[in-house]
Amino acid sequence: MGYSVLSLIANALTGQRGWTPAWRDAEPKPFYDVVIVGGGGHGLATAYYLAKEHGLRHVAVVEKGWIGSGNAGRNTTIIRSNYLLPGNEAFYEWSMKLWEGLEQDLNYNAMVSQRGVLNLYHSDAQRDAYARRGNAMRLHGVDAELLDEAQIRRLYPFLDFDNARFPIKGGLLQRRGGTARHDAVVWAYARAADRLGVDIVQNCEVKGFLRENGAVSGVETTRGAIKAGKIGLAVAGASSRLAGLADLKLPIESHVLQAFVSEGLKPMIAGVVTFGAGHFYISQSDKGGLVFGGDIDGYNSYAQRGNLPTIEDVCEGGMALMPALGRVRVLRHWGGVMDMSMDGSPIIDRTPIAGLYLNAGWCYGGFKATPASGWCFAHLIARDAPHPVARAFRLDRFATGRLIDEKGVGAQPNLH
């Protein structure tokens, strides 16, 4: 069923009895041309673009839980392309362009809202760094504006300008950045992939790989063996564990990243604001809740929960930026398992094992990369060649020294 004004009116007049499930809960078949492991945004987007752009319809997505039960529903919904380095900038800008047409392409309201992303700076040195980033963005055709203090005051007068320990001196604004509804993005890709014939198999955990002559030939799951011509891994924080089942060691550490939602408030924060003197970012959802987060917890973990010291640190950053937050109640918080790569940038590449492809290492950038990640991973799997905008995301760059160190802190995943 296509969603439209006409279908809405027709169902309103017939007691809402005409709606059908958004996608089939498929039973696994014995063989597929491609099996994508991971039913989050990246895995579902990959399956969708394999079918739509490359004509591969005999594709399955296997998910150990339910669709959207992993990191897809555990992020802070931000989309942006304000990156500095060439290896990242073209990729994330392609993702932004896909975001801008996503709802029309998928026939689904993903609540994409280009409300702007503002990175504040608090010193002359930080201003110069942001000016460099903004110039790099503009050279790649990406919008960027360097704002002074007066312009920030007009946009966000409630920030702490006069008594702050780290005075706000200005910020770098990308107006095309913003937010999207994370759950809706996953549902949209699942529905669109299903309509093109992709089998979405839930509650199907991969327990091992089938091997023939050194190549992978399928997966062992809790619902039986599934043979496949090619297998793509898109499992975020579980990448190292799953790759280990194929005797593959990845340059990745898994860390917990917490996020928070407050009680509902009247419209207050128009866009996304990040604190330049600490790791804190905040926006406001359509339901009125303030959505915010900060640093990873800093220790290796596969748990989808965090610890209290990090909660305290995030709240301290929020109070330093915006003291009025001290009167707001936090309703809930959760943790996602981040696959932190050694240079803070992702991996989209073939593995040394024939037939096995890897999509991992997204660190903080996973949600905003969803459309381009799926597009480029599908291109790699279908054509056995990297997409031009993802050519730098090679697995062997850690051995050859071609790192993409966006944050400039070296090979320490806990610092990215």
Please describe the structure with a list of short key phrases separated by commas or semicolons:
alpha/beta; 11 helices; 18 strands; globular
Radius of gyration: 21 Å
**Total beta-strand segments:** 18
Beta-strand content estimate: 25-35%
**The biggest beta sheet, please?**
8 strands, mixed
Q: In terms of structural class, how would the helical and strand content be classed?
A: alpha/beta
Q: Give the CA-based shape.
A: globular
The number of helices is 11
Describe the structure in your own words.
The protein is an alpha/beta fold. Helices cover 28% and strands 27% of the residues. It has eleven helices and 18 strands. The strands form three sheets. Strands 1, 2, 8, 9, 10, 11, 17 and 18 form an eight-stranded mixed sheet that branches. It has an eight-stranded mixed sheet with strand order 5-6-4-13-14-15-12-16. The longest helix is centred in the N-terminal third of the chain and has 16 residues, at 124-139.
Give a brief rundown of this model.
By secondary structure, the chain is an alpha/beta fold.
Secondary structure topology:
Elements: H1 5-13, E1 31-37, H2 41-54, E2 59-62, E3 78-79, H3 86-100, H4 102-106, E4 117-121, H5 124-139, E5 145-148, H6 149-155, E6 170-174, E7 178-179, H7 182-195, E8 199-201, E9 206-212, E10 215-221, E11 224-233, H8 239-244, E12 252-264, E13 272-275, E14 280-284, E15 289-300, H9 308-321, E16 330-341, E17 347-350, E18 356-360, H10 370-383, H11 397-400
Parallel strand pairs: 1-2, 1-11, 2-8, 4-13, 11-18
Antiparallel strand pairs: 3-7, 4-6, 5-6, 9-10, 10-11, 12-15, 12-16, 13-14, 14-15, 17-18
